[in-house]
Amino acid sequence: MTATLGTPPLRTLTTALDAAALGGHPAAAPADLLAPDAFCWLRRGEGLLGYGEIAQFTGTGPERFADAEQWWKDMLAGALVRDPLRVPGTGALAFGSFAFSKTSPHASVLVIPELVVGFRDGTAWLTHLTVDGSVPTAESAHALLRGFLAAAPGCPEGLGGTTPGTPSAGTVRSGALTEEQWKESVAEGVLAIGRGGLDKVVLARDVVASFDKPVSRVSILQRLLEIYGECWTYGVRGLVGATPEILIKVDGTTAQARVLAGTLDREDEPAGSVGFAASVLGGSAKQRQEHDFAVRSLTRQLAPFATDLSFPAEPFILELPNVWHLASDVTAELADFEGHLPTSLALVEALHPTAAVCGTPREEAGKLILTLEKMDRGPYAGPVGWLDGAGNGEWGIALRGAVLEDPFSVRLYAGAGIVEASDPEAELAETWAKFRPMLQALGLHA
Ligand SMILES: C=C(O[C@H]1C=CC=C(C(=O)O)[C@@H]1O)C(=O)O
């Protein structure tokens, strides 16, 4: 849908969230405001929730980012925005999820919700958005929120699904490839690297979790928020997860990324400390190589958009409940091109896919992924996040996540960076460590 002559413009109204106007609903924390189909982008009590859908872009192919950007520009043209707060995430806003591959049939989407609740720096706001000519007000925004919450009274969407902490009867089976077949693919990847022409390829696999009772999307998101607080918990339609990796965040003139590559399973070393992880990961030439490829691919693509680009010479150890990662935070001051800063979505287009999820060189790795994985990644490892009318946005890489395919089955994805020194058995174990967040959220892992 595009704003054309004769169609009402996008209208938005942002107002402070008045907890008293919520009719006694306990809005203490964002997790309390999750509703069954809510869009979600939350971390450490900050972020955005979205409810309802009033307009959407869908697209596939190599132009999916550019087409989405054009659609968003069209929606903003003539938009009537009332936004006294004017911080990233207020005013016009869309949530999005993009397919990993330009050849994927999976639809990439940008969706404008009817209502947004935002949390930042201790304040909370509501934005009511319309495209039907109606004029949003502070009252209409609060009434909408009351309505969405009434349909989701803090329980697992009436589906009788799993509640946090409750073990559920579920089984897990291999997806496109069995474990043996996937290890063969990894071995082929190692051989391809040895033959030359590429240095790194990230190979992923899928598993399917099946249940005899419907799963609860709200419970999954709540559990991820509870356990993986350091990650960005995302939910865009059926895609849910908690990613530790940020492809790009734009806040005014500053862009930031968190690049990860290099992994150590914490279950293998229950008593291990960050210092222990630093010595194992930092001391491994294989892990450092994997990481350096990922940092280099991100910084090389970001540099043309920046007047200043900085990242530490040495990665730090990111400690998550399931794994330790080698991590590098990259910061850039964005360059102004003829009075315009690049939007977060324009940067996503330039940066995706990095060597953290594809490989080096990108083209060769991409081709090998298509041959060896025997599956379509869909939205896995694609950009997921949001953008606003000023170009700000936060886009994670959709890792540690899953697609809710129907009420009873969930497809989980995980991958591992393969370099010449990779061992298929160890890479398989690493994928299980990366499945763990979703398995825990589904009640399938102790
Ligand atoms: C491909 C995934 O992780 C990437 C991000 C962090 C560490 C990675 C690694 O050590 O291989 C991967 O590059 C995944 O979680 O599915």
TrEMBL record:
Single annotated GO MF: isochorismate synthase activity
InterPro entries, per database record: ADC_synthase, Chorismate_C, IsoChor_synthase
Coiled coil: none
One GO BP annotation of this record: salicylic acid biosynthetic process
The keyword rRNA-binding is annotated on this UniProt entry: no
Classification via Gene3D superfamilies: Anthranilate synthase
Keywords in alphabetical order: Isomerase
Entry annotated with the keyword Nucleus: no
Origin: domain of life: Bacteria
Reactions that this protein is recorded to catalyse: chorismate = isochorismate
Name listed for the protein in its UniProt record: isochorismate synthase
Species of provenance: Arthrobacter wenxiniae
Organism classification: Bacteria, Bacillati, Actinomycetota, Actinomycetes, Micrococcales
